Here is the input.
Amino acid sequence: MAGESLPQDPRAREPTPPFPEQHQSPPGLEAAMRPRPDFGEQTYQGRGRLQGKAAIITGGDSGIGRAVAVAFAREGADVLISYLDEHEDARETVRVVEQAGRKAVAAAGDVSAEEHCRRLVQRAIETFGRLDILVNNAAFQKPRQRIGDIPSEEWDYTFRTNVYAAFWLCKAALPQLPAGGAIINTASVQADDPSASLLAYATTKGAIVTFTKALAREAIQRGVRVNAVAPGPVWTPLIASTSSAQTIPQFGASQPIGRPAQPAELAPAYVFLTSPEASYVVGTVLAVTGG
Here is the structure.
């Protein structure tokens, strides 16, 4: 598939700040973002690295998850995308995956529920006849200025969505993954450089890093590699639905590169960690932060 050329200067990739003021109700829709995020539809070119594989991607309807789903499909993988209730975004992701000639399944539901996580693994195996890759990418965040502002229920939901879901999905998927399979967890720059206003979210991302490194020691005994990707600021619906309209225009501008990442810029990291080229990469956190 022919793709458009990308700028030689990485600082020049569009769109760059300032962005229009905007805000959505959580979880947000990619279709309503201005400008629309780049998820690689026009640029990502597959090379058959994942031919015949099958993957689950949570939070696969939009943002990083959508970009990864499209890249996996163009590399030859069938994809089940898990999402909460953003049906319009999910349909668009399915369209582009199927356009690449691969099977796509969109499974709505809340990954903060253990039974739903188990059903996702079962559905993937029933549909594709196998499961090779699990990407734990779904996440919840809500900025709060002080620890006293965080309700216990919100703290619990953040952990259930960001950490418990990864635990439940890995617990169900690991016995099904063949040697050569891969698990990728989405961590964050927040694990190393946390913002006070994202106390709950940053804490869960630190937990995901530790979870990744510990599980990697067990899983590699089965021939399954476990790694994580740690994004910096990325232009996704999570930002549009959890940031104030006034902070949106300069989102990502403080990074050394001068802008946030586009989801399409994260996808190659996930492809690499699932591909044969990463056969000796185990328990690693791959930072994609713009500096």
Q: What stands out?
A: Residues 36 and 142 are 22 Å apart (CA to CA).
